[in-house]
Write a structure and sequence with these properties.
Length: 699
């Protein structure tokens, strides 16, 4: 019976969602008497090694902040203790194909401040090949902000506003402007923006016998950003130059009480981030031959202070400065082997310097260098695609604290990857993958200073003596027409860095430690169901020719994770995502999104007592003024059910948290019209890596 259901769902996906395989419309241009091909973006694309979610045209994703949009993606879990995980794999965060190098609460604050309508799409690379750093761990999330440059001056203005009402009304708003143009010599783009966020959080640490700490936080975050891009055409070659800058000024008032204390504190957190990237793309007469040279530098600075509002004393005064340098070169060309073969080779060198201070006293000086070389073959033979690659990486880690030298770490290791894909029919394939990866402790976990919060009973701190984690990742998957998929993956980690809540003489502390073994099993399943199937039946539904992104449908995602750890009673948990799209009269698109998970399982050393990100969201979207103006109205967490609750395994401590997630707002994007009717979009000129087709061979 289960096989019959599976065949039915696969048959349904094939017939219904392959009716319109061409994603292009033709528009007659009377002045030129020619056809202009306009490519329509897909809401979701399932590639051989990644899943791509379009944000630019999906109102339920681009309303609010980037973090709010990410939480709606099926299979992605975001929480205070889990960080960001997709289908059981911890995510390394990139932006425009460059590592962000910010983590933990700083990453959360950054993504909460960045407007979702400032990005184009999100790629989640679940099978990173040899061309990607082995330090990516299990998966990469790449947030793409790049837009298309045009042969004329174009501009887009974006704006958003929302508010919440819990104990008090709190407001959020953002504004951004994107301007770009291109001439015969170069193209340019600049995007400037800001956001202002007021937020609320209630959190509690407690045991069965006493309240350790209950906190009420009132936050105000101010965020400003500038993103620039230049592209110079040098014959067949191109030079791309990108510079990004953002800064934030965050303040929080935290009132807390617990066993033996009452406190009221003001925290101030100022951050600055500079990022510059140079990319020289050498091109040849042979279109399939490519040589790229890339250099990237970014600097992150953070200053954190915590002062008592009761007696004026300073509890924390911590800061850090982080510099990251990276150079890489990649070469690829086609080979006349089998039906089709592509050969890639490349080298990389990077360096990280990380310095922390507490009350102007340096207490950590950490530096890390990495050298890497890789080669990879991608081949096609009949209905089979193959990838075989390997990456050799060498690490040297040194440092010192105010207590003495850190234990030096030196490692040179080979990281293989292999994929085999059987193409059952066009757009239907079976895929099996193995890759070995490493995850170096991030600077947030290493930082011995508290850049979060503390009171007499609760504290947060890192561990500069953490060791790297080695992963063996296995995955099998069946995918059909980018909308249906079913997969199973295993991530086997040695020396995994985990966050734990531990008991202290005064209460509780959140710390980072290595655990010898952690194995994660993950099952995931995605299926779209068009509503006309229920009203017209299967036979009539199959007669329709439509774009699946423009019909009424329900998308169902089901996932199951199980974290295997020594010496604990581990249990799995299910997570669910339902997304319903309905086309209302007057071309209004109505979207409902619901997330939830089961309780009773464990995420690493946390027992899940409240569902992950359980909330119901609604969005209404419509376009005006010849589709130049896009407006959306949204309500997030309608039922006010999104809260977090965990038990700290190995202790009798519990942690609960509630944010002001029930939010009402609007978002708009206005493409300022131009009279130039002959303008055509050019290639993207922001520094972005190549994208693979559904076939494993790149174009």
């Amino acid at each position: 019976m289960q096989k019959i259901y599976f065949i039915f769902f696969l048959f349904l996906s094939f017939n219904v969602f392959s009716q319109n395989e061409k994603q292009t419309d033709t528009l007659q241009a009377k002045e030129l008497n020619e056809l202009i091909i306009v490519k329509k973006k897909k809401a979701v694309e399932q590639k051989a090694d990644r899943t791509i979610f379009d944000f630019s045209q999906q109102a339920h994703l681009n309303s609010g902040s980037v973090m709010e949009g990410l939480k709606k993606l099926p299979g992605l879990i975001v929480s205070d203790v889990a960080g960001m995980m997709y289908q059981g794999k911890q995510l390394e965060v990139f932006m425009d194909s460059r590592p962000l190098n910010i983590y933990s609460n700083e990453l959360t604050s950054y993504l909460e401040s960045l407007p979702a309508n400032s990005i184009e799409k999100v790629e989640i690379i679940t099978q990173p090949g040899a061309e990607f750093p082995a330090t990516s761990g299990g998966a990469i999330i790449n947030i793409i902000t790049a837009k298309n440059a045009k042969n004329y001056l174009s501009a887009t203005y974006s704006n958003g506003y929302s508010f919440t009402k819990y104990d008090d009304a709190r407001h959020r708003f953002n504004n951004s402007l994107l301007v770009s143009a291109k001439n015969s010599l170069f193209g340019w783009q600049i995007q400037v923006g800001q956001s202002y966020n007021e937020g609320y959080q209630r959190s509690n640490f407690f045991s069965p016998t006493q309240i350790i700490s209950q906190n009420l936080s009132d936050r105000t975050n101010r965020f400003y950003f500038v993103k620039t891009g230049l592209k110079f055409d040098l014959g067949k070659d191109r030079l791309l130059v990108n510079y990004d800058f953002n800064t934030s000024n965050n303040r929080s008032t935290i009132d807390a009480n617990g066993f033996g204390f009452v406190s009221s504190d003001l925290s101030k957190n100022k951050r600055k981030r500079n990022d510059i990237a140079l990319n020289y793309q050498k091109r040849f007469d042979d279109y399939d031959k490519k040589l790229d040279f890339r250099f990237n530098y970014n600097n992150n600075q953070n200053n954190f202070d915590l002062n008592s509002l009761i007696n004026g004393s300073t509890g924390l005064q911590n800061n850090y400065n982080q510099n990251f340098y990276q150079f890489k070169t990649d070469y690829s060309q086609e080979l006349k082997v089998l039906d089709e073969t592509k050969f890639s080779i490349g080298v990389l060198a990077d360096k990280l310097d990380f310095v922390t201070e507490s009350f102007d006293i340096k207490n950590l000086d950490y530096w890390r260098t990495t050298y890497a070389a890789y080669t990879e073959f991608q081949s096609t033979y009949k209905n089979f695609d193959f990838i075989l690659g390997g990456r050799l990486e060498s690490y040297k880690i040194e440092g010192e604290t105010n207590m003495g030298l850190l234990m030096p770490f030196n490692l040179t290791q080979f990281f293989p990857n292999a994929t085999i894909q059987y193409n059952i029919m066009p757009q239907v394939f079976f895929n099996a993958n193995y890759n070995k990866k490493i995850n170096l402790p991030n600077t947030s976990a290493l930082n011995p200073n508290n850049t979060n919060y503390q009171n007499p009973n609760v504290s947060f701190f890192g561990n500069p003596n953490l060791d790297p984690t080695i992963f063996d990742n296995y995955e099998i998957r069946v995918s059909a027409f980018e909308y249906f998929y079913i997969g199973y993956s295993i991530s086997d980690a040695s020396n995994q860095v985990v966050n734990r809540i531990i008991e202290t003489p005064n209460g509780a502390a959140s710390v980072s430690v290595n655990t010898p073994k952690l194995k994660i099993h993950n099952f995931n399943f995605g299926l779209p169901l068009p509503y006309m199937l229920f009203s017209k039946g299967l036979k009539e539904t199959l007669k329709f020719d439509f774009n699946p992104d423009e019909i009424n449908f329900l998308y169902i995602y089901v996932g199951h994770q199980k974290h295997f750890l020594d010496n604990i009673d581990y249990k799995g948990f299910w997570n669910f995502n339902l997304m319903s799209q309905i086309q209302l009269p007057s071309k209004i698109k109505f979207t409902l999104n619901y997330n939830t998970s089961t309780t009773g399982g464990n995420y690493q050393y946390y027992a899940i007592q409240e569902p992950f990100s359980q909330q119901l969201d609604a969005t209404f979207a419509k376009k005006f003024l010849s589709d130049n103006l896009s407006v959306s109205l949204y309500i997030n967490d309608i039922l006010n059910t999104n809260k977090q609750g965990f038990g700290a395994i190995g202790t009798d401590l519990f942690y609960t948290s509630k944010y002001d997630t029930r939010r009402i707002g609007f978002s708009l994007n206005y493409k300022i019209p131009t009279k130039n009717k002959l303008a055509k979009e050019e290639r993207k000129f922001l520094n972005e890596e190549k994208q693979e087709d559904t076939k494993l061979i790149g174009n």
